[in-house]
Specification:
Layout: E1 2-8, H1 11-30, E2 35-41, H2 48-57, E3 65-66, H3 74-92, E4 96-100, H4 104-115, E5 119-125, H5 135-146, E6 149-152, H6 155-163, E7 171-173, H7 177-184, H8 186-190, H9 194-197, E8 205-209, H10 213-216, H11 219-232, E9 237-241, H12 244-252, E10 263-266, H13 271-280, E11 283-286, H14 290-298, E12 302-304, H15 313-316, E13 320-322, H16 327-338, H17 355-365
Helix pairs in contact: 1-2, 1-7, 1-17, 3-4, 4-5, 11-16
Length: 368
Amino acid sequence: MKKIISVVGARPNFMKVAPIHKAFQKLVTRHSSLVTHKICHTGQHYDDKMSKIFFDELEMPKPDFYLGVGSGSHAEQTARVIIEFEKILLSEKPDLVIVVGDVNSTIACALTAVKLGIKVAHVEAGLRSFDRTMPEEINRILTDSISDYLFVTEKSGLENLKREGVSEDKMFFTGNVMIDSIVNFLSKVENSKILENLFLLPFNFLLVTLHRPSNVDSEKNLKNIINLLNSLSKKIKIIFPVHPRTRKNLESFGLLETLNSNIILTEPLGYIDFIALVKNSSLVLTDSGGIQEETTYLGVPCVTLRATTERPVTVDIGTNYLVGEDTHAAEKVCRDILANQFKKGQIPEFWDGHAAERIANILLNDQR
C-alpha cells in the first residue's frame, strides 16, 4: 500500500486537491489495499471561516494535519512550513508528497520531502509567466526542478519543461484538476442563490477580482483600476468580492469612498457562489491565474490586468484577453465585450473533468 500526503496551503489549492482526493477514494473503494491518502493544510491562508467553507463545499474531509503557519514574510512563512512539515513527514513516513500550484507551501513542502528522500509530485507543473518578479514564478521553477512527477495542465507546460532540460519520463500531460472541480460541482453551482441574494440578473453584471501586489499595493495603479471600474459601472453593475489585502489598501489609500454606487463590494465568497457568479457574468476582470482557466472552460470573456500569464492557452484558444496594466486598453476590450464583440474560445485538451483520475492512476501504477 502506498501512503500519500497531499498539501494545501492557500484556498486555490483546495480546488486542485479535492478531485485528487476523490479519485483516490474511488480507487480505494475498488481496491482497499492500494493507497492511504492524507491531507495536510499548512494554514498559509489562515481564515478559518473561509477554509471551512471551501472544505465543506468541495466535500473534502477535515485535514489530517493542520500546521497553522499563518502570515509573515515569504521567508518566515516558508521557514515555518518547512519546520512543521518535516515533523509530519518524520512521523508519517509517506511514500509520496503531492504539492499543487505555486504558493509558498508548494515549494516549502516539496523541498522538505525531497531532503528526506521522499518522492514529490507537482500538479500544475511547467506553467511559466517568465516574470521573476512574481514570487509564484520562483516557486514554480524550483518545485519543478526537484519533483519526481510533473503533471502538466496545458502543452505550453511540456514545452517549458523540455526547454529547461527536464527528463521527459517525469512529465505527464494529464489536464487540469481545477476543471475537475467545476465539472464535479456544476449541479451545486446551478443551485446557488448568490444571484438572488445580490439582486442580479444573469449576464447583466461584471465580476472583478484583484489581489496581485503589482495592482493593489501601488496607490497609482490601484487608483487607475478604480477609475476604470467607475467608468465601466456607468454601463453595467459591477460585483467586487474584495480580497483582504485589496480592502486594506483601498482603505489606506482613501479609495473606498470614491467608488460609484453601481459597484457592489462583498466579502470573499465560497467556491460554489463564486463559480456561480463567474458562470453568469457578462465578463470577468481579474489578475488571478486560476480564474483565467475557469472562465475559459465556462466560455465567459475574461480580461486579465497583467503583463504576462503562465496560462497562455487561455489567451491562444480560450476566452482570455491579456491587457497588461494599461487600464485604457482594458476599458476598450471590456466595452467591446459588453457590445458582444468577443472571441468565443475553445476548451483546451484534457480539460474534461478526468485529470485527477489520470494522476491517481499514474501514481499508483508507476513502479519507479
